[in-house]
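Readers of this paper often ask what the protein records in our data store actually look like. Such a record has a labelled line for the sequence and another for the backbone structure tokens. Nothing more is needed to write down the fold, since each code stands for a local backbone conformation. The record that follows is passed on verbatim for readers who wish to inspect the format.
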Amino acid sequence: GQTSANSNQAHSTATTVTTSVDNQNLANNTAAIKAAYIDFTAMISFLQIPSSAYANLNMLVFAFADTDVDSIKPAYANEIQQVLKAQTSGTINLLSLGGEAAKTSNFQLGNVDQIVNHIVNQISNFNQQYSVNGRKIDGVDLDLENGISADVIDALAQKFKQHNLIVSAAP
């Protein structure tokens, strides 16, 4: 099952999705993805999340990347680094693109290479400067809505995979 908790105070969404390795024995399955989503624009709320909350996660999505630049804003990079310090090893960290406010005009097939180059540079620059004990940004989350074409989403996913990044996307 899936549960979501939204907080006006925290402006983040925590989601737990149970995955089944054995469909016949779902009730006894202990494998679970414990994921959270942090919106950079909720900076004050972000600071209210206790660092101990990150220790129980195995996936974290940081939103939203600016697709027009090669570096994550220093304030956001510092936020991410603080979370990395509080995480357990093995947590998958993703940088999210898009969101509800993403403009369809920015996500066109002709822009795919430029977007990928900027995001790959952001991740590479971040990982070189801010990683903590091997904890880093591992990939991208394509949160592309509002009429952004499947062709664009597929092209982005394929290009990011060519850079050995983990890619997630919601249908």
About this structure: DSSP finds four helices and seven strands in the chain. The first helix runs from residue 43 to 47. The two ends are 17 Å apart (CA to CA). Helices lie at 43-47, 74-86, 112-130, 150-162.
